[in-house]
TrEMBL record:
One of its GO terms (biological process) is protein O-linked glycosylation via mannose. Residues 53-125 form the DUF1736 domain. Keywords: Membrane, Repeat, TPR repeat, Transmembrane, Transmembrane helix. Pfam families: TMTC_DUF1736 (PF08409). The chain crosses the membrane at residues 30-50, 71-95, 115-133, 145-167, 200-216. The lineage of its organism: Eukaryota, Metazoa, Ecdysozoa, Arthropoda, Hexapoda. It comes from Clastoptera arizonana. This is DUF1736 domain-containing protein.
Length: 217
C-alpha cells in the first residue's frame, strides 16, 4: 500500500508539473498580447492629446466610404478596403501616391463581385484565428498569434473603427503591420520545409519572391 501510495503521489506531482509548464507559456503569451494592446491604446491617447482632443474635419473626397449614410454599405466598403490593404501586403502591384478622389469605386450593391473579395479575406483571416485558438498551444501557434497581433493591432488606428481617417488607402500605415506579415511568411516557409523534402525548390522560390519584392520596392 505504501508503494502504491508513493506511486500515485509521484504520478500526481508529474501531472501537476506538466500542467504548470503547459500553462506558463500561455500566461506569458497573454501577457505579451496585453502589453502590446496597452501600448497601442497609450499611443492612441497620446495622439488624441496631440490633436487637441478633437477630431480633424475631412471632406468627402478624402475618404468617401466614411460619408456613406447606410451603415451596412459603409461597413462593407470598410471591409473591402481592409482586403485591399491585405492584397497590397501580399502583392504590391497597385501603388499610388493618393488613393482619394474616387480611386476606389464604392460598393453600393450587395451583388457586386467585390463582395466575394471580402468573403475570401475574412475566410482566410478567420481560419487563421480559429486554428490558433484551437491549437495545442505549441510554439508555432503562439508565433502565429503574435504575428497576427503585430499585423492587426498597428493597423487599427487606420481602420476607421475608432475615428474617421482622412484617406482611403495609405501604404505608410502598412509599415508596422508588414512586420507581422513577414513573420507569417517566415512561419509558412518553415512549415513547408517541414512538410516537403524538396527544400531546394522552396529555397529557390523564396529567393525569387524576395528579389521580386526588392525590385518592386
Amino acid at each position: 500500500k505504501s508503494s502504491l501510495y508513493l506511486e500515485k503521489n509521484k504520478h500526481l506531482k508529474k501531472n501537476l508539473s506538466e500542467n504548470i509548464l503547459r500553462e506558463k507559456p500561455l500566461k506569458l503569451l497573454l501577457l505579451r498580447q496585453l502589453i502590446l494592446c496597452l501600448g497601442g491604446v497609450i499611443i492612441l491617447i497620446i495622439r488624441w492629446y496631440i490633436m487637441g482632443r478633437s477630431l480633424p474635419t475631412f471632406q468627402k473626397v478624402d475618404n468617401p466610404a466614411s460619408f456613406i449614410q447606410d451603415v451596412f454599405y459603409r461597413v462593407v466598403n470598410y471591409n473591402y478596403i481592409y482586403a485591399l490593404n491585405a492584397w497590397l501586403l501580399i502583392c504590391p502591384v497597385w501603388l499610388c501616391c493618393d488613393w482619394s478622389m474616387g480611386c476606389i469605386p464604392l460598393i453600393d450593391n450587395i451583388l457586386d463581385k467585390r463582395c466575394m473579395v471580402i468573403a475570401v479575406f475574412w475566410t482566410i483571416l478567420g481560419s487563421l484565428l480559429i486554428s490558433v485558438l484551437k491549437s495545442n498551444r505549441s510554439t508555432t501557434s503562439r508565433s502565429v498569434l503574435m504575428s497576427l497581433t503585430m499585423l492587426i493591432v498597428p493597423f487599427l488606428p487606420a481602420s476607421n473603427l475608432f475615428f474617421q481617417v482622412g484617406f482611403v488607402i495609405a501604404e505608410r500605415v502598412l509599415y508596422l503591420p508588414s512586420a507581422g506579415f513577414c513573420m507569417l511568411i517566415a512561419l509558412g516557409c518553415r512549415r513547408l520545409c517541414l512538410l516537403y523534402s524538396n527544400k531546394m525548390l522552396l529555397h529557390f522560390s523564396l529567393i525569387v519572391l524576395i528579389l521580386s519584392f526588392s525590385f518592386r520596392s
